[in-house]
Design goal:
The complex is a heterodimer of chains A (289) and B (158). Chain A is of the alpha+beta class. Chain A is 33% helix and 26% strand. In chain A, strand 13 and strand 14 form a beta hairpin. The chains are: A alpha+beta (289), B alpha+beta (158).
């Protein structure tokens, strides 16, 4: 399969890329790792007449920490996330989840920014970003704005990104002490999207859970935040009974599409089980077990 | 659409060609440059039969535009043997019967080649993880793992 015809642009600066995007409007599309866009173009689900390749823009790569916030360039690849000692030390949920994405070759090309900006509910980073209280720096012709991950995902392939904006950077607060975290992902095989997955980040003060984020992958039109489940557990000593009640609340917001991975009932049930597992593992880690 | 001139290093040799931007690297390698060792399997970046080395990293050439290889360095199975001597990964696949029909083999070899640079002394589990982007429809995985172990040992002792 070969994509439809397009003109190829390889800008070397973000400013150049944004001006190309402005010039071509709806006809233009930016290319990150290409492992979602190129398959869509091969199937003619996407037919941009101008493809703007971001791979030559150095300022979009790299991971650094500044004042308790980790800055990740949008074109940082999944394998670069996995190789980052800074992330393993300060926000280990991100590289741990990246290890569950695709396969070694695809992780060499696939980027965190592409995974986020594509708006596919099957992608893993949206739920991870919402669970880690990340923000996104969106760069447009009139400057930059910073928006929280929670609220960025509006629908399938539909985000807060304006047509002339490019996701430049992801900002993630460093995990405080006594943080527990987990990403439980059920998939049929290596490289598959999640049948259902749950991300949890929580903080303990003694035995009391002072804060918890619970987010879900691929069981709705976007990644979902299980707010009622979070409220149930916040300020409490989390027991097995409360974990089961939280999982029920998480299942209540699921609205998965039936496909070869399972029907609605099965996927919803699995989302509940992934939620239970992620909460339990997060508790163990927060307690230092 | 106008063709673009690209040049890159293929198996140590400089090559130049004209491509449409929409042409994928695998098509240009096979159809324009005559290097048919890299295979098109699923054509959807799942199976890994088209795996080549681009700028020191394993990639799936069915999901990379040929223009993206411009000025780069590409290694395919045709470039593995040197001076008539098989590369240790090739020798390993031969000695350990790491292939049955052989269709997945060029991709397996190129991934094994790069994986062993990344991790020269891997455990069996690390090999399974490192080779997980390559599928074998004959399901000959046990011997593929043994072949990679053979190559690792040979390269360590070299």
């Amino acid at each position: 399969m070969i994509p439809g015809a397009f003109e190829y642009h390889a800008p070397t600066t973000l400013a150049e890329a944004v001006s190309l995007l402005k010039e071509y409007g709806d006809e233009g599309k930016v290319l990150a790792g290409g492992h979602s866009l190129l398959p869509m173009m091969k199937l003619r689900f996407a037919e941009p007449s101008h493809l703007i390749d971001l791979n030559g823009i150095d300022e979009l790569r790299g991971i650094r920490e500044e004042n308790g916030v980790i800055h990740i360039g949008a074109m940082t690849t999944e394998n670069e996330l996995i190789a980052s000692q800074l992330l393993w030390d300060k926000c280990p949920l991100i590289p741990e989840a990246a290890k569950l994405i695709a396969d070694p070759q695809v992780r060499n090309k696939g980027t965190i920014g592409g995974d986020i900006a594509h708006g596919d509910p099957g992608n893993d980073h949206p739920a991870i970003m919402m669970a880690t209280d990340a923000s996104f720096v969106l760069h447009g012709p009139d400057g930059e704005r910073v928006v929280p991950a929670n609220g960025f995902f509006l629908g399938t392939y539909f985000t807060l990104l304006e047509p002339e904006e490019i996701l430049k950077e992801i900002q993630v607060p460093v995990f405080p002490r006594n943080t527990g975290y987990a990403y439980s992902k059920l998939k049929r095989k290596t490289g598959d999207f999640a049948t259902a997955a749950a991300a949890v980040v929580l903080q303990l003060d003694g035995d009391i859970c002072t804060k918890i984020n619970i987010t879900l992958t691929n069981v709705g039109p976007t990644a979902l935040k299980a707010e009622e489940a979070e409220q149930l557990l916040t300020g409490k000593v989390i027991t097995e009974d409360l974990i089961n009640q939280a999982a029920e609340k998480a299942m209540a917001i699921c609205d998965p599409a039936e496909d070869l991975r399972g029907d609605v009932e099965y996927k919803t049930h699995m989302a509940g089980e992934m939620t239970r597992r992620a909460i339990r593992q997060s508790l163990d880690r927060a307690r230092g077990n | 659409m106008a063709k673009q001139h690209i040049s890159f290093t293929l198996n140590g040799q400089k090559v130049e060609t004209l491509v449409e931007p929409r042409e994928l690297l695998i098509h240009v390698l096979r159809e324009q440059l005559g290097q048919t060792g890299s295979h098109i399997g699923c054509d959807t970046s799942h199976c890994g039969a088209c795996t080549v080395d681009l700028n020191g990293k394993s990639v799936k050439a069915c999901t990379i535009l040929a223009v993206q290889a411009n000025d780069g360095e590409v290694l395919t199975v045709e470039g593995l043997a040197k001076d008539g001597e098989l590369h240790p990964v090739q020798e390993g696949f031969m000695q350990e019967h790491g292939l049955q029909c052989g269709f997945c083999t060029p991709g397996m070899l190129l991934r094994a080649y790069r994986f062993l640079q990344e991790n020269p002394n891997p455990t069996e589990e690390e090999i399974r993880w490192g080779m997980s982007g390559n599928l074998c429809r004959c399901t000959g995985y046990q011997n593929i793992i043994k072949a990679v172990q053979y190559a690792a040992k040979k390269m360590q002792s070299a």
